[in-house]
Structure formats: structure tokens, C-alpha cells
Amino acid sequence: DSGVTQTPKHLITATGQRVTLRCSPRSGDLSVYWYQQSLDQGLQFLIQYYNGEERAKGNILERFSAQQFPDLHSELNLSSLELGDSALYFCASSVGGGGTEAFFGQGTRLTVV
Amino acid sequence: AQSVTQPDIHITVSEGASLELRCNYSYGATPYLFWYVQSPGQGLQLLLKYFSGDTLVQGIKGFEAEFKRSQSSFNLRKPSVHWSDAAEYFCAVGSFYAYSGAGSYQLTFGKGTKLSVIP
């Protein structure tokens, strides 16, 4: 158990809908990272937050957004969902803003039908 | 920009045989390097990491990796593979860069190498 908790574990939704994925980092970790894992693209970095502030942005679509709350949990919002958004979404956390290893949650498997 | 290449998409070894998974990175400065393992339906688990110092690092489950700066490589090895090692392995590089006027840090992953173990 990495200490990073993601909910829900599975999510099935229809195209055009909006979903929210939730992540609770390890106790004491200030950084949260979101990744998307698909068969064709591999592990793609989406976005990072550090202590509530956006710190880095990767290949995140404009339809996607995220935030980190004062209690340090984070949410990834995916809207206007398309079939191609079906993937495994991982959250990871680390102690600092960088230079350390990240610990991953079990992921949320999103299926868009 | 930093990048990670894992040249082998799929490797099959016999149980008890030795293993080497290749990883090459591209990064202008001294990188932070990691190997993660992902079992089916699971998240990524950290096997080992290299930040500085001894270029041969030991990890969990009997794995080790060697950092070779001249070859920009960080290959993962295990002397004797067990059936439970069957999984997907990801190499990652941690790099620093400027973002919105502040320092930022990103983990970039390779595409992964799937390991199958024959009994």
C-alpha cells in the first residue's frame, strides 16, 4: 500500500459527460501528480500541484482540469468525455516539489461508452 | 526536453535466468532516475532510485540498476528471475525546469517493458 488513495476505482460513463476523479496523497506529501495511462500513449503526465498551486502542466487537454484543496487532496475533472478518454488515470504524490520519488495510487479506470 | 527510451517492448525469460531491462534517457543535467514496476490492474511501485553517489543501486525484490553517465543508461538487472516478477517495468527520469517563473520538477516515463516469465 503506497498510502495514496484514489476513488473511484472504476468508472463507466457516456460520451459527453463529466466526471471527477479524487486523490488523497500520502500523509505529509505536498505534491500531487496526475497521469493518464493508455495502451497507445503509455504513461502521460497531465498536471502537478504543489501545496495548492499548479506547478507543472503536461499533455492535459483543455477539457480536463484539476485542483488541489487546502487539505491537499486533489481532484481531476474530465468533461465532454470522448471514447478516446478511456484510460487508467493515476495520481501520485511526493514530499516536495521535486527531486524525490513519487508514490502512486491504484488508479481509476475510466471507460467511456 | 527530457525523454526516456526503453527499447524492449516485451521480454520473455525462464524462471531462474538472469534479467536485464534497458533504459536510456536524454537530459542535459544529472538526472534523478527511477525504476517502477506495475503488476496487472495495480498501480506503480517504486523498485529503486538513483540520485547521486554510488552508480550501482540496490532496490527491493532483489533488483539492482547501474547508472552509466557515458551511455546515458540506467539498466535494471536481477540475477535470478522468479515467476512473480512477471509485470511491466517502467524507467523514469526526474528533471527540473522553469515553470511560470518558479522551479518545477517532472517525472517522465518510458513506454515500459513487459516481462513474461516461463516456468
Main features:
heterodimer, A: 113 residues, mainly beta, seven-stranded mixed β-sheet, four-stranded antiparallel β-sheet, 0% helix, B: 119 residues, six-stranded mixed β-sheet, 58% strand
Task: Give a written overview of the molecule.
The complex is a heterodimer of chains A (113) and B (119). Helix content of chain A is 0%, strand content 53%. Chain A has 113 residues and is mainly beta. In chain A, strands 2, 4, 5, 6, 9, 10 and 11 form a seven-stranded mixed β-sheet that branches. The mean pLDDT of chain A is 93. With 119 residues, chain B is mostly beta strands. Chain B is 0% helix and 58% strand. Chain B is globular and about 55 Å long. Classes of the chains: A mainly beta (113), B mainly beta (119).
Task: Sum this structure up briefly.
The complex is a heterodimer of chains A (113) and B (119). Chain A contains no helices and 11 strands.
